[in-house]
Structures are given as structure tokens and as C-alpha cells.
Amino acid sequence: ASPWTAPRWMKVENLETRKPYDSWTSGQLNPEYYADYALYFVKYIQSMKAAGIDITTVTIQNEPLNRGNSTSMYMTWQEQRDFIKSALGPAFEEFGIESKIVVFDHNFNYDEIRDQEQYPLRIYEDTAAAQYIDGAAYHAYGGRSSELDLIHRSRPDKNLYFTEMSIGDWNPLFEDDLMWFMSEVGIGTLIRWNKAIIVWNLMLDAGHGPNRPGGCLQCYGAVDIGEDYKTLKRNSHYYLIGHLSKVIKPGAIRIGVSEFDNKGIEYVAFKNPDASYGVVLLNRSNEDRELLIGDEKESLEVSVPSRSIVSLSW
Fold it and tell me: Which helix H or strand E contains 40, and what residues bound it?
């Protein structure tokens, strides 16, 4: 679960003047209301549980460096650090909330804001805040997934999650879109210690909705449903998640692979709890590739056509 803004009455124009900011878009959280906002998180989680939905994880703010979303709130790493250690963490302890706390939830390049680079690492430096934090979440609207290598090497004890990437009218070519997403998001994040991938979003209608005023009018769903509410259009994210989820099962462990690097193939491999293997192969080249895949006990020959994705389970 991820809020896109605090209530307007909690927001200020900036932290220096703390002038009230009566807008859903932009603004910052008034530190005077840290305890109140933490209680919002607690009551939300409790209410969802009462409705039969357990919230496993929360992020503090969706895209905290983006002032432009129709509902948004600017939140620096300094603010998230202080909110977590002074209010949210203690509130979760007081009320017995077991939901994980995840920081950041924004782009690999930190929107090129210099003093916000390595946002999660800055927060982790504060042990009072870090004790409450499970890890960090990332989006892919800017930068590259290779940023996660640095974050993991610096704090391997903290988890990583990929939590948002959208498709839309700006990605007109299905094939190019699918190739990029599998490379950068699908395989690119999983080989860099990510524990989950979430895409934006599951299903939209023929009008790119539902959305709120100022929301995205060009976005696609993983699946778009036609005006008859029967016809389905399956977009690139549908196949991205399909390839991954068919062969990588909950609780799977990523395993090493050797001898693929000279084949021009991008790949990720897992061993599932039932002892089966799951492998996803991406061939972005214009040539077909032939591979021999297996372990010391058995192997299988696999053809990976040009510009294709192949997922295997055995």
C-alpha cells in the first residue's frame, strides 16, 4: 500500500515558512502532524485487516520527488527519516502493526536531484530510523536498474522491491516495449536482488480509465477492456508478468547460471520450493540462438528465436 499524499490539512508550502498548502498536488508534510499521519497508517492497516485484507508492506510516499502527480507530496530522504523514526515506527510498535516499512518508491536516478541521490542509503545511516525499515522500492521512469547494484552492495541486509512502471501511448511499438521491459524491469531487477515486481496497472477501460482529474489519460493497463466490457487487449506488461509468474513461484530462490554470457542472451534462473527450475531467457538480437540448459543430472536443448522471450520450467 502506498499513499500519494497526506490529507491537505496536514500539508505546508515548504518546511521553512510552514504556510498552509491547500492542494492535493505537491506541498510537504507539516512535521507538527507526524504523529497524526502515523495514526492514519495504523488505522488504514487495521481497517483493511477488518475487511479481510492483510497489508504486508507500506511505502511512505508514492514518488516522493515528484511534485507533479495529480495527487502528490514532496518528501525528501531527510523527511522520511524523521517521520519514520519519530512517528511511524513507534506507532507500529505501539499498536502491534507488523506491516513492513519500505522507503523511497521512486526512480533509479532520483529525478536527478543531486542531494537526494542514494536516497535509501541516506536514511539507513540513521540507526534510529533504519531499525524500522525493511528496504527500499524503485520505479524505472528515469535511470537504470544498475543503480540497485550499489544499493544492495552498500546495505545487503535491506530488501529491494520494484513497485511501478507504466506503459502508454508513448510506447507505441509492442515488440520494442516488451524487449525493453523484460531487460530492464523483469530480468534487470531480479538479477539485482529485487524480491518482487509490480507494474502499473492491472486493467483499464477503452478510455484509459478510471482515473481522477489530472490523472494519466494515455496509460495502458496490462490488459485493456473494450467498450463492450468483454473484449480484452493484452499489452506488453501482460506478457512480462506472464513469462515471469509461470515459471518463478512464490518462495523461489534465484540461482547462478554459467556459460550464457557469450550467447548474447539475458537471463534469470530460479529454483522453486517444489525443486523445479524456472528460467526466463531474452534474445534481443536479430539472430536465433541455440542453448543447452540444465544441471549435472540432465539438460535440454532450447531454441530462442530472434527478438523473443522464452520461459522454461522443468
Answer: helix 34-50
